[in-house]
Amino acid sequence: MSWKGTVLRRLAVCASVLPLALAAPALAEDFVIENVTLVDGTGQPNQAKMSIGIDKGRISFVTPTAAAPRVSGRRIDGSGKYLMPGLMDVHIHLKGARGGDGRRMVGVDPKNPTAPVPPAASADAQAAHAAGLQALASYLYSGVTTVYDAGNVPEHIFGLRAEERAGKILSPRILATGYVATYPGSHGDSGGMAIDNWTEDRPKLVKYLEEQKPDILKLTLEEHGWGTRPLIPLLPLDLMQEIILETNRHGIRTTAHTSSELRATEAIFAGIDSLAHPVIQSPISPEFAKLMGARKMPMATTLTIGEGYSRLVEHPEYLDQPLYQASYSKAEIDELRTKTLPAWKERGWTWWMKLMTPIAQENMRQIDAAGGIIAIATDQTLGPAVHREMELLQAAGIPAAKIVRIATLNGARHIGREDDLGSIEPGKLADMVLLDADPTADIDNAKKIVWVMKNGALIDEDKLPLAGGPRPLRRAAR
């Protein structure tokens, strides 16, 4: 939203508060949060002693408590607490639909994605569903209220998306791609929708867009992977433009997997709506930082997917943190310590990624400093990774106050939902996290969660199917 739109919206809200305050009858509200310090996600300074009204899942007013309208509803005292928007992870790959070796547990033929799907083996389908629910629970427990899955087995992720939207499962809001669009033999071809000849393959894409209704379509423009693969076929730019144009004509946004400055630039000028990864293969040029600032092209951060290898090898004690203890089962933590750690210690990839992660961190800092839009993303399937992503940005020199926006409103811009998500403003969906400490002073304070709210409903954490077992309500301990 432009600064003019923001000013007009706030003037309209101020004008609406006065008659509400003077009206005799009390208005019905779901919740009123009072006397809280507001960290609204827009980047403006914290506001003390604020009241926020929630009605039918949306934010109805944001005003100083002293001037708040008289309304009924459940009142929450936010004294000494900080209220921020729900966090977002705009690049995940939710576990469940693939086994540990990458083989499909449930799925359809990527060469013919609209063909009838035979029933999956019951045990595999149930295991996939349960694993997905555990991962989704880890996001909510970590304060993440919206996720975008950037490539998965369609019936797995779209099935969970349907359950989430019907209110049948405890889950953050799910946006998904399903199949990625790629080129035969290129990155993602083994589990994607390969498009070669536009005249012949356009009907396949159109049918997928109309029947599966992906929220965002991901394309791959990659011949090297992240620096180590041999040369593989590359999606031709004229074909990429056709895919983007057709997808946009269906009202669907696009994002691109790239890892170099060259391919990111080509994707931008092919018409892509966002970038799914940072530049990690080399330091960016000053001109690229300026380009990102001028174009306001949202770019996902995805730093932890590479940094996580050396972190486990050198600092496995992070697994003792409460969010990880809740999100992993004891068996998973034991396996990470005893099997995964020594295996990763011997891999050259681990140490190459340790070398390249600071490069990507500095690239992110430069783009942010140039006025570009970077958004928190992990390329993983675990809620606590979002907090690690924010820690890495803070370590790169980005102030915590800016990281709050990167993790909230910038995420909403990345997925095209800034009109109803990403900040605490009247009319937006009531996705919020109450904290015991100020996240703008130190982003690590975003872990100090009192409660999480999605769509105006407080999450009952004791009912989340966390892999680490049941957890008591954190708000009950206050």
Structure description:
By secondary structure, the protein is an alpha/beta fold. The chain has helices at residues 3-22, 122-141, 154-165, 198-212, 237-249, 261-270, 286-295, 304-314, 322-327, 330-345, 348-369, 384-395, 400-406, 409-414; strands at 27-38, 47-55, 58-64, 71-77, 82-85, 87-92, 144-149, 173-176, 181-182, 193-194, 216-220, 253-257, 299-300, 374-375, 432-435, 449-454, 457-458. It has 14 helices and 17 strands. The strands form 5 sheets. Strands 1, 2, 3, 4, 5, 15, 16 and 17 form an 8-stranded mixed beta sheet that branches. α7 crosses α11 (348-369) and α8 (304-314) crosses α11. The longest helix is centred in the last third of the chain and has 22 residues, at 348-369. It is globular and about 60 Å long.
Secondary structure: elements and pairs:
Elements: H1 3-22, E1 27-38, E2 47-55, E3 58-64, E4 71-77, E5 82-85, E6 87-92, H2 122-141, E7 144-149, H3 154-165, E8 173-176, E9 181-182, E10 193-194, H4 198-212, E11 216-220, H5 237-249, E12 253-257, H6 261-270, H7 286-295, E13 299-300, H8 304-314, H9 322-327, H10 330-345, H11 348-369, E14 374-375, H12 384-395, H13 400-406, H14 409-414, E15 432-435, E16 449-454, E17 457-458
Parallel strand pairs: 1-4, 1-5, 6-7, 7-8, 9-10, 11-12, 13-14
Antiparallel strand pairs: 1-2, 2-3, 5-15, 15-16, 16-17
Helix pairs in contact: 4-5, 7-11, 8-10, 8-11
